[in-house]
Amino acid sequence: MIPSKVYSDREWRKEARLIIRGEMARREVGYKELARRLGGIGVEFEWKSLSNKISRGTFSAVFFLQCLHVLGVEQVHFNR
User: What is the pLDDT of residue 64?
Assistant: First the structure.
């Protein structure tokens, strides 16, 4: 079934932000640990700038996938 509601970019940014934060919480991973894990795949961030980037929700699909990868996420579920 194709969803009938149109979501704004702001709503999609919020959804992406909540997905990353939710997966971090499920795995008890903080921003310092996430930054360390991202560094392990060559994506360098200071934990504070990483926190700001995720809080804004203005990041690329590549960054989103990199975060999910280092968190060990295998599936993402949408409630939209």
Answer: 97
